[in-house]
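Protein modeling request. Please complete all fields; requests missing the sequence field cannot be processed.
Requester role: graduate student
Desired output: 3D structure, token encoding
Chains: 1
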Amino acid sequence: MLGLAADVTDEDQVEAAVGAIERELRPVELFVSNAGILIAEPLEQTAPDAWQRLIDVNLTGAYLCARRILPGMRAAHSAKLRSATDWIVSCSPTAQCFAR
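Delivered output (100 residues):
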């Protein structure tokens, strides 16, 4: 077991965390995107910087992690990415990624 902390909105921290996982354990075989924040206020009261933080964590964070992890998954012929928002992305070494 390996415990790590990383800010998923920071590409350097994502790189360091995934690199540590690959060095200490092995390449990632399953990725579950579970980082996320919620703005608990009406949209019209949400400040633009709070909205941008939500986008950075919930969307860009998942993108940065998947982008870093996918090459190793493709090389191992095993790519399964799961999002806590209930969509899944599957990739094969010879095919494009798809979501459903």
